[in-house]
Amino acid sequence: MIKQTKVLAFDVFGTVVDWHGSIAAEVKRLNLAADPNEFATAWRTGYKPAMAKVRSGKLPWTKIDDLHRLILDDVLNLFNINSLSEDQIHELNLIWHRLTPWIDTVKGLSRLKSKFTIVTLSNGNLGLLADMAKHASLPWDLILSAEVFRHYKPDPETYLGVANIFDIDPEQVMLVAAHKDDLVSAKACGLKTAFVERPLEFGPHVTRGDLQQETFTDYHAKNIEDLASQLGC
Amino acid sequence: MIKQTKVLAFDVFGTVVDWHGSIAAEVKRLNLAADPNEFATAWRTGYKPAMAKVRSGKLPWTKIDDLHRLILDDVLNLFNINSLSEDQIHELNLIWHRLTPWIDTVKGLSRLKSKFTIVTLSNGNLGLLADMAKHASLPWDLILSAEVFRHYKPDPETYLGVANIFDIDPEQVMLVAAHKDDLVSAKACGLKTAFVERPLEFGPHVTRGDLQQETFTDYHAKNIEDLASQLGC
After folding, report:
1. DSSP character for A102?
2. Residue B130 is nearest to which of A117, A129, A131, comparing CB atoms?
């Protein structure tokens, strides 16, 4: 017997909020001597390699705020930006706490919340995700993070951890993400999967070539409101 | 320089929700052959000794749902109740996920949320606290639990853990609780403290003798709405 889906677990950066647009806007606002899109791309490019160091044990457990700061220092060097004080760099690093949701996010989540338990499953740390939710009025039932499991996605401990927290089977959890590698890993753990297209995730100059339907996704949605409609909310 | 309070961390069982009244009502609803108030008291009496076994290492990490179930089995034996099926016992154990908030709770928390980040700091597990928040519309910014820190209160790791999550000093966190032992332990870790009177926490037949003002509390409130008023919300 197939058990009902109870929990929707959302990837956050790119799926729920627009990291590229938010960072580019902040670079413009601060008048930094860098192309805003290139700066945003460079900062995000350091993200997976930094987490890989934690996942492989090269670095001890380090939260995303601190990884973001390590990468930011490199990016500022790369662009030869020396104009910021320590306080200003710290403040810039916290832009990840204030990322802007996509236009369909808040309404879509609110609709889904009426039928499902909606949670985050993000590599972002708890303080970051709580600040973001407060800033952007994201109506999570529970904020879950790699920080709870002390493992970064795509480690299985994260996907299976959600099921364990709610004492349900993995098939009763659906991962919602704009990234196919995340969905493949969730599927391998027995979760349901929903892909959300985010054509502008990497900025206005990057055309994503991976928005087609796949066999490993149970749902394929234009955005979170579309997913809510497909799930009968 | 004294830094501003940023985060209010709430004890939950007794402070935010009425465990005694909710359990007694469930015992009545199920027509169990036991005095509802005695049943509620007996279940809760097993709580601290069970956690103490985890804190001392006698038991490995065990979440509250499972500790509640161990105690419930004992309580059902104590009252010679053999009428429940395994499914019914499991369902009864989940009453802790559906506890009723005190009448001032939701409005008080909503007022406090406008000025502070409001979080739980409970020994209840994450799934329990998320279900409770959804059921009772508790507007938490973040649900924190002993389960995140793998330590039960009053271990210092829990109180200091809240400050660490938000990257702030312990004095910028205020514990709000109806239990003085919890507040004493928080104070010892450098947190601010607020006591909330809950004269009916232990049921209608128990008069609490510990509701007087203390030197180790920064605030002393009749209820959560009163605390919101005292904090200018």
Report:
1. P
2. A117
**Residue A123, min C-alpha distance to chain B (Å):** 14
Report the DSSP beta bridge partners of residue A145: A122
* Chain B hits for A119, Cβ within 8 Å: 130
Tell me the β-bridge partners of A9.
A119, A175
A129 contacts in B (CB within 8 Å)? Answer: 142
Contact B142 A143 (CB under 8 A): yes
What is the ipTM for the molecules in this complex? 0.95
**Domains by residue range for chain B, with CATH:** 7-18+99-230 (3.40.50.1000), 19-98 (1.10.150.240)
**Tokens, residue A92:** 């810039």
B141: left (phi over 0), alpha (psi -120 to 50) or beta: alpha
d(CA A48, CA B23): 48
Which chain A residues have a beta carbon less than 8 Å from that of B165?
Answer: 125-127, 130, 147
A9 to A6, A115, A229: CA distances (angstroms)? 10, 13, 17
Instruction: Count Cα neighbours of A198 within 13 Å in the Cβ-side half-sphere.
Output: 28
pTM score of the predicted model: 0.96
Whether B126 contacts chain A with CB within 8 A: yes
Interface test with B, best of A165, A168, A169, A172 (most B CBs within 10 A): A165
Give per-residue pLDDT as tens, B66-109: 999 999 999 999 999 999 999 999 999 999 999 999 999 999 99
Segment B146-182, tens digit of pLDDT: 999 999 999 999 999 999 999 999 999 999 999 999 9
DSSP string, B5-63: P-EEEE--BTTTEEHHHHHHHHHHHTT-SS-HHHHHHHHHHTHHHHHHHHHTTSS-S--
- Residues A43-96 have pLDDT tens digits of 999 999 998 999 899 999 999 999 999 999 999 999 999 999 999 999 999 999
Please check the confidence at residue B3 and state whether its pLDDT lies above 90: no
A141–B134 CB contact, under 8 Å: yes
Q: Does A167 touch chain B (CB under 8 A)?
A: yes
Taking CB atoms and an 8 Å cutoff, what residues of chain A touch B129?
A: 142
